[in-house]
Amino acid sequence: MTGILRSEWVKLRSVRSTYVILTIVPAILGLVALMTMTVVNFWDATPARRDTVILSPLTGFTSWLAGVGLAILGVLAITSEHSSGLIRTSFTAVPQRTKVLAGKALVLAAVAFSVGQIVEFGSFFLSRAMIGDRIVVGHTSTLAEEAPRMLAAGSIAVVYAMLGLGLGTLLRSTAGAISALVAYWYVAPLVTQKLPGEWASWTTSVMLTHLPEQLAGSGKFGMGPELVLSQAGAAVAIVLYVTLALGSAAIVLRRRDA
C-alpha cells in the first residue's frame, strides 16, 4: 500500500491543475483580509456607530469555498487519468482496482484536511491580527471557543474531496461530475429550504454546508430552517457521505472496463 500511496502522491503533485486549484488558499485568505479591512476601516472612521459594526467569524463561508475547490480536485484526480489513458497503466500495475481508489482517497484526504485547517485557522488568526485590540461585535470569542467550529469546518473539506472523487469515478467525465457538484451546491439548497414543515429542516440539516455547525454543537443557521441533527447525527451523516461516494465508486470500478 505504501507504494500505491507514493504513486498517487506523485501523480497528484505532478498535475498542473492541482496547483491551480490550491491557489484557492491564498485567494480565500485574501478575501478574508479584504472583508476584515473594510470592517476595521469603518470601525475606525465611525466611533459613534461602533456598536453596529459586526464581523462574524467566516467559518462557514471559507469552509464552503475551500470545499468547492477540493471537490473539483477530487474529480480531476480520477477523470484526468481516464482522459489521458493513464488509468489503464495504473490498473495494470495494481490489478486490485479498489486499492488504487483507496490510495487516491487517502492522499486526497490528507491534502484536503491540511487545506481545510489552513484556511479555517489562517482566516481566524489573520482577522484577529487585523482587528488588533478593537472590540468588534461578533468577533470577540476566544480561540478555545472557536476551535471546535473551525476544526469541524476544516475537516468537512475531506468529505467534499471524497464526493468529487466518487462522482468522477462514477461518471468518468470532468464536465459531468462538476455539473453534478454544482447542482448539489446551488440547486439542492434552494429546493430543500422550500420544502414544507420539518422536511425543510431535515433535508437542510443533512446538506454538507451545514454539517460542520451541527458537528460542533450548534443548531443555528441564519434565517433558514432550524438545523435538527445532534453532534452524533452529524457525524453519522458525514460517514454516510463518504461511504456512499467511495462505496459506489468502488463497486463500479470493479465491474467496469478501464
Automatic annotation (TrEMBL):
Top-rank taxon of the source lineage equals: Bacteria
Q: Which UniProt keywords apply?
A: Membrane, Transmembrane, Transmembrane helix
Residue ranges annotated as transmembrane are 20-43, 63-80, 101-127, 147-163, 170-187, 232-253
Q: List the protein's name.
A: ABC transporter permease
- Protein's organism: Amycolatopsis albispora
